[in-house]
From TrEMBL:
Protein name: Adenine DNA glycosylase
HhH-GPD domain span: 35-186
Xref: Pfam families: EndIII_4Fe-2S, HHH, HhH-GPD, NUDIX_4
Record-listed E.C. numbers: 3.2.2.31
UniProt keywords, alphabetically: 4Fe-4S, DNA damage, DNA repair, Glycosidase, Hydrolase, Iron, Iron-sulfur, Metal-binding
UniProt cross-references to SMART domains, sorted A to Z: ENDO3c (SM00478), FES (SM00525)
Co-factor(s): [4Fe-4S] cluster
Gene: mutY
Comment on bound cofactor: Binds 1 [4Fe-4S] cluster.
Domain of life of the native organism: Bacteria
Amino acid sequence: MVFPKRLTHWYLQNKRDLPWRKVHEPYQIWLSEIMLQQTRIEQGLPYYKKFIEAYPTVFHLAKAPQDEVLKLWQGLGYYSRARNLHETAKHVAFDLNGKFPDNYKGLLKLKGVGDYTASAIASICYGEPVAVVDGNVYRVLSRIFEIDTPINNTAGIKEFKILAQELLDEKDPATFNQAIMEFGALHCKPQNPKCDSCPFNDMCLALKNDRVKELPVKLKKSKVKKRFFNYLVFDLKDESTILEQRKGKGIWNGLYQFPLVETESLSDEEELKSQDKFTDLIGGDEFSIELYNQKPVVHKLSHQHLYTRFWIVNTTEVKKPKIALQEVIDYPVPVLIENFLNEYLPDAYK
């Protein structure tokens, strides 16, 4: 078949020199694939290097405290990936004697591992002929074969998986899978694809019919929800503060934050002081509160936008356990709070 031959030829001439491509060990491949979910390689590569240095084997990662893992992950986003990564490392290290499952079906049983990651590990590490399908693959296939089926519904996911499997070079699935992902990332890009020099420009139906910009098709997401966050940054006279760990299934589970008061809209000082969360923290009548940023910081997540303001609270007595203010930087926090701390405690980040 002409498709895999052209694709492999392009890949061997254009592939990037990436550290996980120099090994075929499942630990390194698994780590890189989890990190690169919804993350560009340019952003994920420094994190991969930090993790490999800190945790050279799955046993090192398994034995690390979760807070340490989350701190090292800080800034990469989608923190459920880091929690699942840690849980899977413990399972592989302690229950499977450090050995990852050696086939697609077994890999699928690992926490945080879906079809794409299982296919990648199985094909790259074990030569199993299973096709990967990620955002890059959707884009390449939808354009070359002019497929209108939405990529984010059940029918589309099934259709593209079948097509990718039909095209797969079963004799060398590792190279094919890496090639098609690399081609989507470097050549058949979302914006400004290199159609003039494309090895498939004689067979790309989207190019022929002037539909490159229209594909792939994606169903519209639900309406983005607005949320209003007010962080209470206690800056006490003994240079201490209050930090809380987020619990539950919401965003940033397991990360730390200043006490949070969520309101229905942007709040003023009087409204904030009337909230139960505020009064539950203040230990006496003497305190002052000052808004740090008049204009809210808008932090955009996939289905919600957080309008965030930080309030500096000075008082002599609080009702919650305290930590030294300078120690805050040692805790894993959302990037939203990290950015604030870079401004508020610049000396601590030197």
